[in-house]
Write a structure and sequence with these properties.
Elements lengths: L4 E6 L3 H10 L5 E7 L3 H11 L3 E3 L2 H5 L6 E4 L6 H10 L3 E4 L7 H14 L3 E3 L7 H12 L5 E9 L19 H17 L5 E9 L2 E10 L5 E7 L7 E6 L2 E6 L6 E6 L2 E6 L8 H12 L10 H17 L9
Parallel strand pairs: 1-2, 1-4, 2-3, 4-5, 5-6, 7-10
Antiparallel strand pairs: 7-11, 8-9, 9-10, 11-12, 12-13, 13-14
Bound molecules: NADP nicotinamide-adenine-dinucleotide phosphate.
NADP nicotinamide-adenine-dinucleotide phosphate (NAP) binds next to helix 1.
Amino acid sequence: MKDKIRWGIVGPGSIANRFANAVKNVAGAEVTAVASRSADRAREFADKHNIPNAFASYEEMANSTAVDAVYIATPHPFHKPYAELFLKAKKHVLCEKPICVNAKEAIDITECAKQNNVFLMEAMWTRFLPAIEEAVRVAQSGEIGEIRGVRAEFCFYSSPSPTSRLYAPELAGGALLDVGVYCLNFVAAFLGNDPEEIRSIANVQNGADYQTDVLLKYQGGAIASISAAVNVSKPVVGYVYGTKGYIRVPHFFGATEFFVNTNNEERRVHKPYIGDGFEEQIEEACSCIRNGKTQSDKMPMSESIKIMEQMDAVRKQIQLVYPFEV
Ligand SMILES: NC(=O)c1ccc[n+]([C@@H]2O[C@H](COP(=O)([O-])OP(=O)(O)OC[C@H]3O[C@@H](n4cnc5c(N)ncnc54)[C@H](OP(=O)(O)O)[C@@H]3O)[C@@H](O)[C@H]2O)c1
């Protein structure tokens, strides 16, 4: 294996810029190509980030020898087809969240990665943040007692626009898949991935969930709640509640610190990430690829599939079906 994993970017949109910048901070990685459906957009992005290869189609990059791995940064419904395109071309894949739009698709691409013996992981960068990993360790240490509940809130206001990725039904717009997925991952980090019961309520308008709240009950009785929205301003925050105290993680989407509250006293734990927060997941992907692993132990596909199953269950309850699923 080469010294550096050579990454190609699939879709030079908004988040792709962050990935391109983060790779510059990862010693064992470099971005060697970008692909777009437009030659001009690929060239513009390549020039901006000093990337040597600009491809005018995704297929061209899949067939090239310029990359070992790709980062898929297209809107959600295109994660599956582009993952399959690159996996079949024997490129390792780090795919933006949500891994797909439903569990069936996630299972299909997992099978495709297996068949082609290449690496596949959802880019769930928040699971790799040092502050989140440390909060999990503190929760598991028993310092706040037995875990009885978790709450995760990720809401923001964005002006409704039928053409925006956040609101367009044909792009699987809405809060659940865009930010609810982070809340469910926060809950899963502390309570695992097998809720016995799920109850959901949502404000669905024009084929997208503007606001979705979910309650989840786990074996042993622990209860989690999540709040996801694209039409309301709220602080992004996570809580883990135990029998002896609780953990508060302000801005768990990019956390650099958290607070442990026991006996009416608050202890601050400062665990910043290096760079801009994407580096840890890129390092994990590179390390797995270098070591011939096809999945990450920290964020295996089984984890992504279970979260997709939870989101499928929520969507069934709130009767949200995307037009391309009918
Ligand atoms: N990890 C995070 O913090 C984070 C933050 C934001 C978004 N995301 C995820 O990243 C993904 C992309 O989000 P974004 O906000 O970067 O989106 P965006 O700005 O709209 O960019 C998406 C890119 O996908 C490409 N694309 C390929 N096929 C497309 C199609 N049929 N329709 C529209 N675009 C298509 C487009 O590139 P060309 O047209 O040039 O080919 C476009 O530049 C989403 O799945 C989102 O959930 C993650």
